[in-house]
Amino acid sequence: MDYMDNAEPKPERMFPCQDERFDSGLDSLKEEELLSNQFQDISMDTMSPSQEYEPWRSAVTEDGDTLLHLAIIHEATEEAFQMIKKSHNHSFLNVQNHQRQTALHLAVITEQPQLVDKLLKAGCDARLADDRGNTALHIACKKGSLACFSLITQSCQRHLNSIMSFPNYSGHNCLHLASINGFVSLVENLVQLGADINAQEQCSGRTALHLAVDLQNPILVGRLLELGADVNCLNYGGFTPYHLTYGRQNEEIRCQLYDRTALELRELPDSESDESDMEDLYLSEDELYDDIKFGK
User: Which positions does the entry assign to ANK repeats (predicted)?
Assistant: First the structure.
């Protein structure tokens, strides 16, 4: 299922996280054994893509990982290359495991840009989202992987605007994730590629500039201002980025924003402290949506 067409938050399914699977020596041995045994069935004639049934495409672990997933996780690059070459424009490339990760997600997570390039050229769909609502581009922005970011944005220009603006289940789009993690170069690239610099995240309406102030990052604040961020944009609590400097130690950020902020927007509005409004930045996804009820 392509989550790009459904931005409604979903309840998280309780599966082991990727890190837990990496840490299990027994699971790792089982996966490597499966990869070794099954790969013997793959024809070495890798220059001839096949749409016919291939037994190795059906092999799946208890975590929902295909042989291609395992090859990427265990950095068996040559094996991964051969499976990709045999599967050009085949649905096998877009199979999602129990965490709804595709091979492309895993290639970005493990920072293997050469595989990202091969997967995209072979027809892997960059619009697919995992069980946290993140596309591969979201993950690249979160990790600060400029190489993977560049490959995805260059390959997916037709759908790039929708991917960049798509919010994950925490309400953050690609620009928000790059800002939260302080990757200034990615922020610059996203804005230059057409990302809305004043887009508001869905939890409390913060823009990238609000987030940069929240995280007390003067370099990012300055760059966002140079790129044209709106200093007078209000979050859902009625606060400008300048309001978020109250009670904070960084005078540089306060000075950067003071003269640019409209006079009538410099004083705090008559409402609760901005601290309570900002708390959800640090909440987990479970906590963000613990008030959502499903069914009757």
Answer: 99-131, 170-202, 204-236
